[in-house]
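Dear H.,

Thanks for agreeing to be a second pair of eyes. The structure we're designing against is below in token form, covering all 302 positions.
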């Protein structure tokens, strides 16, 4: 499934060629597709490894960022996160950097895998508090660590308007895009967060949260890792049930302004996902729709 105009194709035969050339000790291990997101394609390698291939040159920059920073961050975090064990280099078959990670057991967080959503929200808040509390180790909000969601909302307003229009054009009256845009503008009227800047995972949606024995076990996919203001970090809690969202908010003691700004980021990421992936990635569009419906329901009851 191709999602981007500049996508670099990669299938199992490409992965085998990469392993043969750069990791011959693993080249004969069983290989199976292990999912694909908007930015990367994954293959499970044997029982203990995962091959991660970026879809585009821009996504390759995120892979390189994971290779640099995850070995330094992972030992400081209390829950498992991906640990790169090989930093792959470009070849004729695949002209981008790529990675091999340790496989982390677990299932995507969802109604069939999470036993107690209140506890899950509290545990996720604890992970966020821990990550945000880590020293920056000399990292600054520059280059690949300056992802847009770690900045202020106003700088993104022009692009957001285009996505609101694009979403409105494809969903029609199915979603109240006007109401969503009002939530965005309500956040724009607030002062920006005063900081401080922290480490941000950047995309703590359920597909990046693994559960075991009914509870949060691991956090994966640090491709959006950045340094910035924490508001957008909280935006993905609208992908979780309301009970998890409430316990998360209470555990972090977020004030109303932070919540409104986080909701605005959730809105704009949702409408942009619908506008961009409408014709190419229906499963992701469904995720965005569900998020936006949750936001509208939540806003109507507050």
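And this is the sequence the design step returned. I haven't edited it by hand at all.
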């Amino acid at each position: 499934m191709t999602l981007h105009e500049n996508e670099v194709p990669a299938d199992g035969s490409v992965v085998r060629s990469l392993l043969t050339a750069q990791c011959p000790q693993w080249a004969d291990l069983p290989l199976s597709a292990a999912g694909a997101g908007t930015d990367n394609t994954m293959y499970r390698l044997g029982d203990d490894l995962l091959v991660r291939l970026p879809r585009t040159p821009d996504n390759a920059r995120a892979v390189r960022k994971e290779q640099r920073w995850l070995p330094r961050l992972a030992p400081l975090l209390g829950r498992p996160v991906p640990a790169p064990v090989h930093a792959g280099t470009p070849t004729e078959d695949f002209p981008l950097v790529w990675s091999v990670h340790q496989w982390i057991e677990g299932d995507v967080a969802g109604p069939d895998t999470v036993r107690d959503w209140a506890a899950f929200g509290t545990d996720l808040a604890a992970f966020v508090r821990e990550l945000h509390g880590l020293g920056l180790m000399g990292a600054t909000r520059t280059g690949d660590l300056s992802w847009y969601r770690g900045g202020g909302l106003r700088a993104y307003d022009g692009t957001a308007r285009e996505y609101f229009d694009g979403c409105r054009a494809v969903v029609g009256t199915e979603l109240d895009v006007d109401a969503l845009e009002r939530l965005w503008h309500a956040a724009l009227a607030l002062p920006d967060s005063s900081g401080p800047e922290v480490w941000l995972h950047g995309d703590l949606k359920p597909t990046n949260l693994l559960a075991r024995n009914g509870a949060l076990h691991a956090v994966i996919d640090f491709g959006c890792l950045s340094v910035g203001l924490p508001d957008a970090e909280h935006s993905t809690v609208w992908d979780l049930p309301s009970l998890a969202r409430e316990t998360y908010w209470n555990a972090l003691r977020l004030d109303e302004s932070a919540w409104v700004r986080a909701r605005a980021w959730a809105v704009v990421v949702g409408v942009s996902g619908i506008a961009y992936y409408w014709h190419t990635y229906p499963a992701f569009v469904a995720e965005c729709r569900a998020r936006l419906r949750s936001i509208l329901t939540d806003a109507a009851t507050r």
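Two observations from my side: The two ends are 40 Å apart (CA to CA). The mean pLDDT is 95.

Warmly,
E.
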